[in-house]
Structures are given as structure tokens and as C-alpha cells.
Amino acid sequence: MEDPPLKKGSKEVGIGSICDDAMQEILSRLPAKSFAYAACVCSCWSRVCARVLSRPKLISVLSVMHLRGRNDGKFAQVDRAIDKAIDKVLAEPIRPHFAIAFARHRDTLNMIHDRIRQRLGSGVTIIVNKTRGIIGASAVTDEVTEVKYIENDPLSIGIVLMVGYVPGLRVSVVPFANLPWEKPPLESAIDQFVTDIKDFTASVSGCSSPVGIMVFMGKCVDTKLVLEKLDYAMSKDTAIVGDEESLFFLYNNGAAKGKKEKGQMCGAFLVALVFAKEKENSHGEYQFSVALSTGISPVGPVYKDVRVLYRTLVANGPEWTTTTALTARREGPVEMIGSQRMIHDLVNEDLYVGFVRQRKRCIGSEEAQWISYVALHKVNKADGDHLVVKGGGIETGDQFQFYRPDPKFALMSRNNVLECFKALKLGGFSKLEIAKSNSGNRAAEVFGGLVFSCSGRGEAFFQWPDVDSSALTESFPGLPIGGMFCSSLIGRSTVAVQGAPVNCLLHVYCTAYLLMLYLPKLP
Asked: What is the reported pTM?
């Protein structure tokens, strides 16, 4: 049927005559691909699209599938799970700058990586990491949940995908120069890794410390030295989190035109995902803030005057293992005591010692400075009159104390984080550094959150599900959240939480919360 003729003097009403506010409402409902096409239609639509995506955005999706019967269809299930997650991410407007994926099966990481790169584009910076569990918003229910993997159970496929749009930031992967099969990294190689991060940041922003760093590392011989160097070299405002014993990872550096490299399982190999401010930033200011919830409590007295008896360094394929044997005495005028007395009444399958390390640190040829850290080492065994612990870097004269997992202490610490988040929210984040620089009456807004939790925590530890992730969901309802479970996590606290570990970079039975904050520029 033909349209009736227009009356004399009437005007045809088309999509071009819709006001900007109505057009913005329409365009904001488009999926990402259609939104990208719409931005290219005309300058008017492009301007409205710029208003829709005028602020940073993080989308996080968790997709879990269960194989029925045999494991023959694992690859097909992974393909469906990742497509389901990507479809959910691209169901609304976003222009991806980076993508982080956590998954279970090492032999499917290549498929996941390539699928993300194919769907999002080769210019997107991508990290795919094999984990011991995932945390995120379900693609089906949109509820945030924690999924711990059951050992030797191949029937569950789980993926969490986080895609971020951060205008005013440059996101890139900085790899470690040493190859996985080479000998343990020398201090000079670690210095070069830290220098590469500083150089990238300086080239982008003009300063040497980025907004945030996520570190994914294999089983290096001295991960503590890497972290101490990073902590020494970076501003205290730089958030540092990550996975200290990554089982396997892949990355695609969008800034390097799609170059892909592989990390080797158990290799002395690491990468850093770096978030740096751009020099010509017409957008707002960013801050990444880290709060820690510890799950170990001190037991027994403080021991001092440690005497290192011997160290062993064993090469097992690409993996290097260091152990240290030592003796010590209690604080005060007490004679030297053996390891059997040290661990008396401390029977626990997960027993740790926290050493107070005072060391001189520098990068390259600059003047060294004294720094102090608490370094945690797992107790391997009590051998006669001495104690054997995992790892190196312990020196004669260090002090230490025993620690063990404590669910009640962990819950109290998690509640302290919750109260801290609520106080920050009510105060408009005035306690955070980002709100101190020409903020006027503006309040910094949280646009995303990441949770890095040790695999020892979770429902079995607390006897209640989703305890750690609920600290964010209760404080910031609707906030996009993603995360993972790891063997031991990397975290440097930037938010003061009562009872949180001080000057400790590598943690066990701990959860690190990363808040991504944004402060819009004044008009």
C-alpha cells in the first residue's frame, strides 16, 4: 500500500530529525558491532556515540558448561562457552582496549585466545591465563559467583572474560626478556624487565610509574626479588596485583600489531599488563586502588638471629626449586633451639614463616636504598635440629614468626575490607588520592573491580559460598566484577584496611581487591 500524500506545508519526519537525547537513548541500546557502524554514518551520529561512550567501561562475564558423560566434546564446549561470553560482552556498546580471560584447561587456551582475537580484533591487548578457579557475573543469571575447580575433574568448562574500554589510558603487555628454558634469571635481567615497564610508561605518559600493573609469572627461582624491585621502582600510587604461580598463559599485545607469544608452564617467565596514562589526555583521571584481606594469623613467639645452614637449587626441566635450611632462637636471652621445638604445637599441613627482610635494592647503576619487607615461606619439613623452608633470599640475622591459615581471622579481615569500601563510598572517595587533585565537588566513580583470591580460600574455607566476592557486590551493587583463584597472589595495598599485611607483596590465603576508579574532567 502506498503512503498517503503529504499535506501542503507539512514536513516529513525521519530519523535525522530526532533530537540528540532520543538518538543517544536509541544508540545506547545497540550491540557493539552495530554501534560501531552507527558511529560511521555521519558526524552527528558520531558525536552522539561519543557521548554514549564518554566514560570508561568494564564488562565481565562468567560462562560455565558441564560435559555430559565422556570428555570427548571438551573443545566444542569451550568454543560454545567462549562464544557465549563474547556475545554477552558485545551485546552493548563498547570499543575494547583490552581483554582478560581466565580459564581452566591449558590445552584450550590457544583456542580461547584466538577466538577472542578473532571476535574483538587484533588491535586489542589480550591476556589469557590458566587458573584454579574463576569469579564473575554469570552469563545466564548476571549474579556474581565463585567457581573453584575440582582437582582431576575434566567435566566442567569455565571461562571468565573481562573486556575494558579506558579512554585516556594505554594498555600494553611488557614481557620478561629471559626465555623459559634458560637458567634462573639474573638480577640484571629483572632490572631490565622493570626498566622496560618504566620506559613504556614514560613514552606514553611522560612519567615512569603507571596507574596499575597486573603481573602473571611462572615458577621463577626468586619471584620475591622481582616484586621487591617492582615495589622499589614504582610510585606508591601504582596498584600491583597478579598471579605468582601462573599455570600457563598467552598474550597478544595489541600495540605490537597482533604479536602473540606463549608462556611456558612452570617456566621462569612472566609478563606485566601495564595501564599507563596518555600524555594528551582529554578525558578524566584514573586511579587503581588495592585492598587486602589476609587469611593467616601469627602463632608462637618471634624468632631472631636466624642462621642459614645451606641452600639447595634443583633444576627439574624448566622449573627451578630453592629450599633453605636454618636454625634460630626465640626473642630474648634464650639459647639456640632446634626445629622440633620451633614447631611444637604448630601441627598444620599449611604452615608458613614470615621473615622480616631488610635489603638494599636498586635498578641498574643507581644508588641502592634500604627497604624492609615481610616475605612468606612455606615450611617443607623439620629435619633434626633445623627447619627447611621453600624459597631463597633468607639471610643470617633475619627475624621470623610462624603463621597458619585461620578462617575466622580471614572473615574478620574480609569484613574490615567491606567496612572500608562502604566508608569510601559514603565519603565520595575523598580518602583516595585521585580525589585530591582539582576535583571540586566531583566524586570519583568506580567502574570496575577485580578479585584475586588464593585457592585455599573459597566455600570450603569459609563454609559459606561467595564470601570474598560479596565484599564488592555488597559495597557496589551492579559493579562489573571478574577475578580468579591462584596458588599465591601478588598484591600491594594502596588502601589502608585494619589488620591488612604491611610491606608484604606475595600472599597466601589472601584476597586482593582491585578497584578501578575514574574522575571525570571538569567541562
From this structure: 0.86
